[in-house]
Amino acid sequence: MNKTQSKLLTSLKAIIENNQDFILFTHSNPDGDAIGSILAFYYLLEELNKTPTIYMNNSIPYFYEFLVKKELRIVKDVNRKYKVGIVFDSGDKNRISETFDIKEKVEILVNIDHHPTNNNFGDINIVDPKAASVTEILYEIIRKLKYEISLNVAECILTGLITDTGSFRFSNTSYKSLKIASDLVKKGANISKISKEIYEKRRMSSLKLMGISLSRLQLYKNIGWSFIEEEDLKNNNASYEDIEGIIDLLRTLREADIVVLFYPYNKERIKVSLRSKKDKIDVGKLALKFGGGGHKEAAGFQINRNEINSYQDFIKKIDEYINSDEWVFTYK
Amino acid sequence: MNKTQSKLLTSLKAIIENNQDFILFTHSNPDGDAIGSILAFYYLLEELNKTPTIYMNNSIPYFYEFLVKKELRIVKDVNRKYKVGIVFDSGDKNRISETFDIKEKVEILVNIDHHPTNNNFGDINIVDPKAASVTEILYEIIRKLKYEISLNVAECILTGLITDTGSFRFSNTSYKSLKIASDLVKKGANISKISKEIYEKRRMSSLKLMGISLSRLQLYKNIGWSFIEEEDLKNNNASYEDIEGIIDLLRTLREADIVVLFYPYNKERIKVSLRSKKDKIDVGKLALKFGGGGHKEAAGFQINRNEINSYQDFIKKIDEYINSDEWVFTYK
């Protein structure tokens, strides 16, 4: 730990000790790390006899409901000013809400994140792009502040770690991530129960959509691709949530270096999800080209239906981009 | 480490130091732990300037070919007697070969395993049913014998650990498994590369079979089930190897407590794979009822085609067994 970090933690400790009233934020459409970190900190603050409140516009996705161990103070709107606001897993404060500016809702804003693009929007910024998950950062913070890690907090931290590393399969998995997971399991966190909750709770509708996308899977050069239509959702009584994770099944195709999945976003727009399996192909850059965004390995964008002639043609266009000289997909 | 273990390791060390000629065995149809442990020990012995030979009737499955870093001494038959034989991951010596008795092929037989049913068939038996994988035991052995763990050995050990814990998702994942994984990653083992090799090298034919089984997935009470026919294999140019892993995709069905997959074994026989998602349903016991075997969570059996009237009827029979009083599936 260097001096700056040590100073930041001292400030954070003072903020926690000297205040009672906290509001916790994370990005919309929260994933496992967002839910894991916001709940971990909520439980920690309650254990310290503080009064935390969670702002969440969406409800907690059904995958992560098992982490809710008690009735929580959740607000869907922020009607008053809070002493301290803490934001988890958001590179930018605008990812929290479209209707209000969170800086105006709090006296002190703390920003805890691991996105390399984080723009340090808080009064206190604890940002570590090397951390596999925000919960990994929280683990370090809690230990360094010498607070106890309760079983509830441990399972939230482990959940963020599991989901953001894809069960320790992605390249962000460090020996530290595994060491932390080991410590949490030693404390009693049930890794197989958590994994079952995350990975073995697919609805029938979601598995049917998986089947459909697999049956349509094609390979064009080194691009594996498939699609889901509006009527597939209707026929299988499925919702958008059911599409989550399908692209990661498609990426298991041996011959593919990148995979692409097209699916309906709304009446006018189609969503295109991208995954890269090769270090030198950066799908984040590719998505940027189409007005989207993401990381080197996982990214996406939206496009108007009328801009896509046929999926096959669009895949050819993507192939051209990947191989064009003007656009080198080399990751530095 | 207790006295017995310490004595065993002293004997093993003497056997390694005092001999030159080793033959290594594992069970037929080797999985990741079988391949990981046999190759880890092969590399270790070579690094100690010994002459190891591997007996393997099958070839190394394509999933694990990445672990082969050099030309190996592999024999498909054992034509002479070896000084030392070491068996990995086999509860019973009969799982090695149908044509010869391995005890007759060696002077000293060492048995290293983690199956609780291991019948201690070796002259030296190092059996730890608490270990998540045999490679986990090897890690402990190598460290306690104070040999170096090279990068090649580390990646073999990590492969066994990953495959036998399903990427640290199964209930055999202990804090120790995660701690060992952490140490191996610290030594340079590339966990994301290994995971990509294992989980992202599916053939198109395998993904098509997945799609077919998902499209046929049904739920009968708490049993999720599906089937693959002989002609599905033909139509998709698929082999039996392509069926591996499909049952684990089916088990992600939220509503299922157990999942069942029927698929062709040969002209007369059908294979039935079982997975349990609930602690109190032991599919190992269920499989035993039909002349098969396996563990609490994963098991299987074969049945003559003419014994199955329809899959649906057979599923009803399984349901009756699960709910019958005479057959309580409570795991002790």
Automatic annotation (TrEMBL), chains A, B:
It holds the Pfam family DHHA1. GO terms for molecular function: nucleic acid binding. Residues 23-160 form the DDH domain. Coiled coil: none annotated. Residues 236-323 form the DHHA1 domain. This is Bifunctional oligoribonuclease/PAP phosphatase NrnA.
